[in-house]
Amino acid sequence: MAxxxxxxxxxxxxxxxxxVGESQILQGHPGTGKTIIAAHRTAYLLNSELxxxxxxxxxxxxxxxxxxxxxxxxxxIAKLLPGSRHYSxxxxxxxxxxxAGLPESGTPTHAIDYLDAxxxxxxxxxxxxxxxxxxxxxxxxPTTDDIYAEFQYLPSEPPPGGLKAEWKAYIRQMPxxxxxxxxxxxxxxxxLLAYIGIRAADSLRLPGHVIVDEAQDIHPIEWHVLGxxxxxxxxxILGDLNQRRTDYTYASWQSVSDLLGLSDDEGxxxxxxxDRGYRSTAQIMRxxxxxxxxxxxxxxxxxxxxxxxxxxxxxxQSMLIPKAVEExxxxxxxxxxxxxxxxxxxxxxxxxxxxxxGWQRSRAEGSxxxxxxxxxxxxxxARARGLExxxxxxxxxxxxxxxxxxxxxxxxxxxxxxxxxxVVHHQAMPNSLRTR
Length: 436
Description:
Elements: H1 2-6, H2 10-16, E1 24-28, H3 34-45, E2 60-64, H4 67-80, E3 87-91, H5 92-100, H6 114-117, H7 120-135, H8 144-152, H9 165-172, H10 178-184, H11 190-200, E4 209-212, H12 220-229, E5 235-239, H13 253-260, E6 271-274, E7 276-277, H14 282-288, E8 300-301, E9 310-313, H15 320-335, E10 340-343, H16 347-356, E11 360-361, E12 368-371, E13 374-379, H17 381-384, E14 389-395, H18 408-414, E15 417-425
Parallel strand pairs: 1-5, 1-6, 2-3, 2-4, 4-5, 7-8, 9-15, 10-13, 10-14, 14-15
Antiparallel strand pairs: 11-12, 12-13
Helix pairs in contact: 2-3, 3-4, 5-11, 7-8, 7-11, 11-12, 15-16
């Protein structure tokens, strides 16, 4: 472990080796080493060379955005902690589905309505819990079915503070029973059902430290779920608010800090800024940072000798996907033994083109395509979060959804590239990227 830590940069080392009970929120641009810090902090806290009283009282729980992220990070930690069983790496969707009693899909969270994600959902569920406890038999805990039934009853008998009309309408259109809600597998209710599940749990295996990566995309109701997990140690929360995929998530780390009780005596959140880039070249970051407000573009990249991103226009819509696949194959040649990904809002046309050119889908991973010993990954932006590749092709930037005043989804896609970035488009480029 000493050898591993010696290879880290001083700012990374300081954050990784914080005491187990100390909480920190790390805000950083892409490439500032957030995922490296997450993986190495897990390994450091469980290092056998650390004094026993400085180690976590329970296991270390590392949470990430997708199953692709879990596979990526779990392999890295396994090399740092061979044979250790004192940590777990899990995606937020998997955690929520297990708590909710839903089949595991690994599908990233998508809120259809802001009420699906709202913090007030937890307050209403707490009222349902209190009511279910009132009617439970002495010595027993209310079940998830009991709590859901009382939640359904809230429009008829509102909480003491009343119930807004929008919540009455929302609750009345929900499935009548928990069994039906689970059968329908409506992802919009996943946060609420997970919260009900954790409130009904008899006991939980309390983690000794919780690490949350890509935390900017966690919805308020999901933060309430995490808060109810319990924690025998501190929190390490990592993310980039510029990469938020939706306006239904918190716009500031202060809100997260207040919810989890991490703020100091003066009410300030323990936020630290990461402003040195280690992964992507300066050329890639300068290009992607055009999507950010001018006041948030500062980033010192250590890789100054990269190449300028390539912008290629398909003059006909029918040529967009063939051109994107052609550019991905070109990047395979440029990167040698490196990794290449195509990030697109529509995967099927890209996959169909790969099939036509002799590529085959990997049996091990559905997003990986193979031919003659080479591989290309095809991912939607939601599943590319937390990952990195030597070369990336981003297809049709104008198709990427926008938040209010921000383009977090496109920003995330562009910054997955370490060395080479190619943008293929037919429609007009976003205004902020047309200056090139």
